[in-house]
Amino acid sequence: MAGGPSTSGAGAPHVPVLLRPLLKAVSPVSGTWIDGTFGAGGYARGLLEAGADRVIGIDRDPMALEMAAGWAGGYGDRLQVVQNNFANLDEVAAEHAPEGLDGVVLDLGVSSMQLDLAERGFSFMKDGPLDMRMSQEGPSAADLVNDLEEAELADIIYLYGEERASRRIAKFITRARADAPFETTLQLADLVERALGRGKPGQSHPATRTFQALRIAVNDEYGALAEGLMAAERALKPGGQLAVVSFHSIEDRMVKRFFQLRTGHSGNVNRYAPVQEAEEAAFTQNTKKGIGPDDQELEENPRSRSARLRVGIRTAKPAEDIDRAALGMPGAQAAGKNRGKRR
């Protein structure tokens, strides 16, 4: 959920999640920053108003650039917006900030403005085309639902949505699409509800995890996160800060694992294991625990309920690539291991 504009901006439709604790954690703010998930510009505005000399906003969604055109000019050359994927932020930095970055902010997931537009197909609350493409290019969610084999569809729903009933849902989908292809969000949401039942009052909609899984798969969000974390390591100066806001357990686990690996801590706490010499750290952290919303944040923005912020400070150690599997990124091997646990 990429952050919306700050409350200081005219006509700001959304409140950026965890903006206050983020700015506090990275204070004092100065130099050149990349907001890798620009969205409606909330973090970028917050950084500029907190003292950043310059912010480069990156977003894969062309709509974000169109929206920024009406207000970004007010910051002059202090704000530049680029259409790209934050997985490539080191390439963007090399072109626009060759001296290196003082900070990177990533706000993961789908943005509020994308969820609120039925025509983008992200939400099951409004009827629209079953799309979900952030870049508005490439295969859509409808393509996946209509074309994938049942087993592959079940794996995606299980791995990316953590939906234990993934095989049942995939079976219902493949049976239904034999009569007519899926084209709209409510068409799929109603099908999943029939497969799982309506659920108890107060519970999330039965299609929540399925829609999350398809969105992540369509946009390769976990792959982009893995690449983006390593790209930030390459682009940051010594002393530069990487701040990441995540919204569900897999994302947060990947970010946590990245910082464990890059701070020289493997995360292995087995007291019987042989003592291993600590590796030189590429990042340091002031706190190992993620920062969540306080009462004020929850009141202002209920969508922040599951948000977690993690911040690391870059050292002078040369950057290294990390195997995606080491970050706990879901994959086919995990699918086979856990297949029997689904219903």
TrEMBL record:
GO terms for MF: rRNA (cytosine-N4-)-methyltransferase activity
Protein name: Ribosomal RNA small subunit methyltransferase H
Binding of S-adenosyl-L-methionine, residues: 41-43, 59, 86, 107, 114
Catalytic activity entry: cytidine(1402) in 16S rRNA + S-adenosyl-L-methionine = N(4)-methylcytidine(1402) in 16S rRNA + S-adenosyl-L-homocysteine + H(+)
Keywords: Cytoplasm, Methyltransferase, rRNA processing, S-adenosyl-L-methionine, Transferase
Chain's gene name: rsmH
Disordered: annotated span: 287-307, 320-343
Cited HAMAP family: 16SrRNA_methyltr_H
GO biological process annotation, one example: rRNA base methylation
Keyword Mitochondrion: no
Highest taxon, organism lineage: Bacteria
Alphabetized InterPro entries for the sequence: RsmH, SAM-dep_MeTrfase_MraW_recog, SAM-dependent_MTases_sf
Function: Specifically methylates the N4 position of cytidine in position 1402 (C1402) of 16S rRNA.
Keyword Membrane among UniProt keywords: no
Gene Ontology CC terms: cytoplasm
Protein family: Belongs to the methyltransferase superfamily. RsmH family.
CDD domains xref list: AdoMet_MTases (cd02440)
Location(s) in or outside the cell: Cytoplasm
EC number of the protein: 2.1.1.199
